[in-house]
Amino acid sequence: MAEVLTRKIANEYRDRARLLPPNGLQDIGDRRKLRIELQSRCNLTELEAVNIINGYHIGDYVVLAERRKREKEKREQEE
């Protein structure tokens, strides 16, 4: 089961990406592995994961993940 994205998780991956060679922020090599790991861990889209590891829109993605969690819980209660 995937974890819900938190600011702590997002910052962890952003910080890990900062230690990698910039490579024009291309999704290749270790940066790609990191993106795939984050995607799997938090059930994110490729775009969401790329933006997070590049430090873009982290707050928005955390709010979105929390909203998805609440909606899922609501659906489960209705069943």
Beta-strand percentage range? under 5%
* Class by SSE composition: mainly alpha
Order of helices and strands: HHHH
Alpha-carbon distance between the two ends? 20 Å
Strands, total number: 0
Which shape, going by the Cα principal axes? elongated
Q: Please, what is the average pLDDT? A: 95
Report the helical percentage: 55-70%
Number of helical runs? 4
Rg computed from alpha carbons, rounded to a whole number of angstroms: 14 Å
Low-confidence stretches: none
Biggest β-sheet: count, sense, barrel? none
List keywords for this structure.
single chain, 79 residues, mainly alpha, 4 helices, 70% helix, 0% strand
List the helices and strands and how they pair.
Elements: H1 7-18, H2 29-42, H3 46-53, H4 58-78
Helix pairs in contact: 1-2, 2-3
What features would you describe in this structure?
The protein has 79 residues and is mainly alpha-helical. 70% of the residues lie in helices and 0% in strands. It is built from 4 helices and no strands. The chain has helices at residues 7-18, 29-42, 46-53, 58-78. Helix 1 (7-18) packs antiparallel against helix 2 (29-42) and helix 2 (29-42) packs across helix 3 (46-53). The protein is elongated. The chain starts with 6 loop residues before the first helix and ends with a helix.
